[in-house]
Automatic annotation (TrEMBL):
Coiled-coil zones: none
Domain NADH-quinone oxidoreductase subunit D: start-end pairs: 117-288
Keywords: Oxidoreductase
Name this polypeptide is given: NADH-ubiquinone oxidoreductase chain 49kDa
Superkingdom of this protein's organism: Bacteria
InterPro entries: ComplexI_49kDa-like, NADH_Q_OxRdtase_suD, NiFe-Hase_large
Any one Gene Ontology molecular-function term assigned to this protein's record: NAD binding
UniProt-listed Pfam families: Complex1_49kDa
Length: 360
């Protein structure tokens, strides 16, 4: 008689954006996962109790996507007010968003290679991520409230020296990311642990309405920056990276290639950065109306809807990209080996901050 075993798997030690008690309960028989239960036990945040200003609250929504949240919110408010950020500000907004995307992807890759026991590669990724984070901090500066992107433009205009330093860093990191990816993606250990593991078909990805890297790794050609360009993306569109196999290997390769593309796109945006203002004057009052904006955050489409009410107050709602949930967990993990469960889950780049936002 075959006896099944139940495991409770916590992802918090490995996933940078996995902030609270989310659990996978796995039932295993004959060295295969036969049933999956996903539990999201993180207390949901209440905006009504917040003492922060809207822009502060938005910037603190997610630890890895603050630039994207600020940008989506700012674009929605600008649509509500009928204004547009100056060209120089739009370029610098793009640089901040793309550096954030590269940092997020490098962080996820670092966690994946750490989990696979490839310590040297993980350490290299951590070092590159740290240097890029420092470069982004230099770009953002010590602006008020720790926020760069605001409705109407940006709080701080980086100096020529800041731009030159960042361009030098971007060039160096682009070469390093390319060489690292070229060296590791065909290693036998990596192939053995990732190929045909945690596969998600293009059809399933479409049915789950996935977007972002998780969707593109399964063959879906979806990217807000390309499909509905906003800000500086209308002139500086990124190359859409797509992989077809939908397994952990495809997700790893895609994260590498997208990080590289973000570095190159940031450098292009800083090249011949136009002169001019970085803020426009905003109307003194809010119209009683609604507007929305969608950006491509590191994990996919991020939508903000804003509303000016009769009291002259600004209300907003956020809709992040679909994240790891019960149905996706079952699709990815059923019949997988227990030893692969954490790797599969981590390769989806799960974010509990985004999960909590969806229920706000």
């Amino acid at each position: 008689m075959e006896i099944g075993v139940t495991y409770i798997l916590s992802l918090e030690p490995a996933a940078a954006a996995w902030r609270g008690p989310q659990r996978l309960i796995l039932k295993v028989a004959a060295e295969q996962i036969t049933d999956v239960e996903y539990r999201f036990d993180l207390p949901l945040r209440s905006r009504s109790a917040s003492k922060l200003s809207p822009i502060q609250e938005v910037a603190q929504s997610c630890p890895t996507c603050s630039q994207s949240h600020s940008l989506a919110f700012a674009l929605a408010v600008e649509a509500l007010l009928g204004v547009s950020a100056p060209l120089r500000a739009s370029r610098i907004r793009l640089v901040a968003a793309e550096c954030e995307r590269a940092i997020s992807h490098l962080t996820t890759l670092e966690a994946i290679f750490t989990l696979m026991g490839v310590a040297t590669t993980a350490a290299t990724l951590a070092e590159m991520r740290t240097r890029l984070s420092q470069g982004l901090t230099q770009l953002v500066g010590s602006s008020a409230e720790g926020v760069l992107v605001v409705p109407g433009g940006i709080r701080r205009d980086p100096s020529a020296a800041d731009g030159a330093d960042l361009r030098s860093l971007l060039t160096t990191l682009s070469e390093q990311v390319y060489r690292l990816a070229d060296r590791v993606i065909d290693q036998r250990l990596i192939l053995a642990r990732t190929v045909a593991v945690g596969s998600l078909s293009e059809t399933a990805a479409a049915q789950f309405r996935l977007c972002g890297p998780l969707a593109r790794a399964s063959g879906l050609q979806t990217d807000v920056r390309v499909d509905a360009p906003y800000g500086a993306y209308a002139a500086l569109a990124p190359q859409m990276i797509v992989q077809r196999s939908g397994d952990v290997y495809a997700r790893v390769v895609l994260l590498f290639l997208e990080a590289l593309e973000s570095l190159k796109l940031s450098d292009r945006a800083l090249d011949n950065l136009p002169d001019g203002a970085v803020m426009v004057e905003l109307p003194q009052s809010l119209p009683v109306a609604q507007a929305e904006a969608t950006v491509e955050a590191p994990r996919g489409a991020l939508r903000y809807r804003v509303e000016g009410d009769t009291k002259g107050e600004l209300n907003f709602w956020v809709e992040p990209a679909p994240q790891f949930d019960r149905l996706l967990a079952r699709t990815l993990l059923l019949q997988a080996a227990p030893d692969d469960a954490l790797l599969i889950a981590l390769s989806t780049d799960p974010c509990s901050a985004c999960q909590a936002l969806r229920a706000m």
